[in-house]
Design goal:
heterodimer, A: mainly alpha, Cytochrome Bc1 Complex, Chain C, two-stranded antiparallel sheet, two-stranded antiparallel ribbon, 4 strands, B: alpha+beta, Rieske Iron-sulfur Protein, 2 domains, six-stranded antiparallel sheet, four-stranded antiparallel sheet, elongated
């Protein structure tokens, strides 16, 4: 058996020089310091993405993306298909854990200022993937075609329509018409299973190549400490094995959540029923949703909702472009403004999310 | 012809080629992307223009209640107040497009999405809605109740 592997390795190696890669892996080190734990969340996000691809493909075998059949096809998956309930529940739970893990990854990179020169492109591709992840969540939420999803999609796409000039065409493009109908479902289905995964995979490739090429970033104070005090562990096998252990833990957590807290399907969407009481979006949109509730209809001369949406848009843009305006961190200096605004963002999100859940 | 002349005529030829090729490229880009963008825009569906809709018999509509009525492809809410008066409004919340409902205990038209409230004249009285609900006309012909556009 071993002989066969060696033979195979030699056969490939003669053709593509695998030894370069093996040598590269052997020389790859991961810094060890008090914030090392955050390094695992990129890998966990990757793992959850892989789970989403696999379970997503499995769901595609039975799911039917149309107004008449979507809800029923998921009922079928959950009640008739063997382990269908498990696959669907894992897909829903992993989606949420994926956003959570990507968030932790993003905030840890932000607070350790790992986005600073020379890793601006890694941050940018990461942020784009984060927005795509929210797009995955938003489009996937509609696919069961239930009541909650229907109104969440109405509100979400209407928010896009609030933007001046470009808003209306974007809303019509997203909805596939003036209203949320079966046409919207078809479009969201296409975005969810083809457009978004395609773009995401390209960005993920760039992101991972950059990480390999540049190595892990160290926090500024670690980087500034004397070389003798800086520690590192080999990526292969030390870090990789720890990574895999983490993945195993996440898989266990997923299994527990999917089995003991199966994802609900709710009631089929009725285009002519009032919005049900207690309607709320996915938790990662909650803070924005809750903010919209508090903003009055009219703020000075602008519509309250336009104001809220523009404010979130600008904040998101500033956040995405942080490597380009935070010059201090790139010079290796502490930048407290960045840290405090990050803490403000985290507090804001947590408080508004809790308020949203309680109301 | 001296050197300067030939250089000028060369430049003229180059410019000519630049415009022809550049223009060709632009036309090509246009002819590829125009159909693509046009395809993304959903076609206007022929909508049946509805001007009035029959709801049912007056005796079947309870006092102090609200029902959603299908008006073409839009929802309309028909409210019968506690005193028996009938009013109809567009059921689409003016805030973010959710469908509103009648709330008995508060005596208001309520939107569950962002807690917007309208009074029974359709006026936005609390929460985020920026405008009143569009009003529809309720027509009583004997026992028959129907709703029609206000204009």
């Amino acid at each position: 058996m071993t002989k066969l592997w060696i033979k195979l390795y030699r056969w490939v190696n003669e053709r593509v020089h695998l030894e370069d890669l093996v040598e590269f892996l052997g020389k790859k080190y991961v810094p060890v310091h008090s914030h090392s734990v955050w390094y695992y969340f990129g890998g966990v996000s990757l793992f959850l993405f892989i789970i989403q691809v696999v379970t997503g493909i499995l769901l595609l075998l039975y799911y039917k993306g149309s107004e008449q059949l979507a809800f029923e096809s998921i009922q079928f998956i959950m009640s008739k298909v063997e382990f269908g309930w498990l696959i669907r529940s894992i897909h829903s739970w992993a989606a949420n854990l994926f956003v959570l893990s990507a968030m932790i990854h993003m905030f840890s990179v932000y607070f350790t200022k790992a986005y600073r020169n020379p890793r601006e492109m890694t941050w940018l591709t990461g942020m784009l993937m984060f927005f795509l992840a929210l797009g995955f969540g938003f489009s996937g939420y509609l696919l069961p075609w239930n009541e909650l999803a229907f109104f969440a999609t109405k509100v979400g796409t209407d928010i896009a329509g609030v933007l001046p000039i470009i808003g209306e065409p974007i809303m019509i493009f997203l909805r596939g018409g003036e209203e949320v109908t079966g046409a919207t479902l078809s479009r969201f289905f296409g975005f969810h299973v083809a457009v978004l995964p395609g773009i995401f995979t390209v960005l993920l490739g760039i992101h991972l190549i950059l990480v390999q090429r540049q190595g892990m970033s160290e926090p500024i104070d670690v980087e500034n400490s004397p070389t003798a005090e800086r520690k590192a562990m080999p990526f292969f096998p030390n870090f990789l094995l720890r990574d895999l252990l983490f993945w195993l833990l996440v898989l266990n957590l997923l299994a527990i959540l999917a089995v003991f807290f199966p994802w609900e399907l709710g009631k089929k969407a009725d285009l002519f029923a009032p919005a049900p009481a207690g309607i709320r979006p996915e938790w990662y949109f909650m803070f924005m949703f809750q903010t919209l509730k508090y903003i009055p209809a009219q703020l000075w001369i602008v519509d309250g909702e336009v104001f809220g949406i523009m404010a979130f848009g600008i904040a998101g843009l500033l956040w995405t472009l942080v490597p380009f305006w935070d010059r201090k961190s790139s010079r290796g200096e502490k930048n407290l403004l960045i840290t405090y605004s990050g803490m403000f963002a985290v507090m804001y999100i947590i408080i508004l999310t809790i308020l949203g859940w309680r109301s | 012809m001296n050197g300067a002349d030939s250089r000028n005529s060369d430049k003229g030829k180059r410019d000519f080629l630049k415009y022809v090729l550049g223009g060709g490229l632009l036309a090509w880009v246009g002819s590829v992307f125009y159909p693509l963008f046009a395809y993304l825009k959903p076609p206007k569906q022929a909508e049946v223009e509805v001007s009035s809709v029959k709801v049912g018999k007056l005796s079947e509509i309870e006092k102090d209640s609200g029902t959603i009525v299908r008006f073409g492809n839009k929802p309309v809410i028909l409210v019968r107040t506690a005193s028996g008066e009938m009013r109809a409004f567009s059921a689409t919340c003016t805030h973010l497009d959710c469908t509103v409902q009648y709330q008995k205990d508060m005596g208001v038209i309520w939107c569950a999405c962002h807690n917007g409230k309208y009074d029974l004249n359709g006026r936005n009285v609390s929460g985020p809605p920026p405008r009143p609900l569009d009003e529809f006309k309720v027509i009583l012909q004997g026992e028959e109740v129907s709703i029609s556009k206000n204009a």
